[in-house]
Amino acid sequence: MADESSSAAAPDELPSTTSNSSTTNVEFEPPAACIRRLMKQSLPKSTTVSKDSLAAISRASGIFVLYLTACANDVAREGRRTTIVAKDVLGALRELDFADFLPAMEAFLESHRRDERNKKEEKELMKLNKSSSGGGGGDGNKIKDVTTGNSRV
């Protein structure tokens, strides 16, 4: 775990939010269906999971997400930024002694960024194709009849 000089919140000091000048603890639990799906994918088929253990893992994962978020926020603030970016999350994982997960996270981020770039390029290509086939010669009010293929006003 991080040493005492770390500015990350301790697990029992989860981030809080202020609403109407009263402070309440932020709570987050991923949906049980998502946790159940993750557990089914990672455990042998012969393993059964009780409702209590599902609830406990769901709660623990929510606490971990909040703790990692608080630590990533601290990393961002150390960099004099108010926006948490991927490198802050990686820095938080390193600070929380989860460095073993960094190669998998970096590979995931690379793949995710590539997928997002491809989606953006496809969307721009579709937009270009649509504008070039749509004309712009005053056909804005015409509707194409799907059954006959003819345009009508």
TrEMBL record:
Position of the signal peptide: none
Residue span(s) of domain Transcription factor CBF/NF-Y/archaeal histone: 31-93
Segments of this protein annotated with the region Disordered: 1-27, 113-153
InterPro entries: CBFA_NFYB_domain, DNA_Pol-Epsilon_Subunit, Histone-fold
Subcellular location, record wording: Nucleus
Main location: nucleus
Record key words, sorted: Nucleus
Taxonomy, superkingdom: Eukaryota
Keyword Nucleus annotated: yes
Protein name: Transcription factor CBF/NF-Y/archaeal histone domain-containing protein
Organism: Stephanodiscus triporus
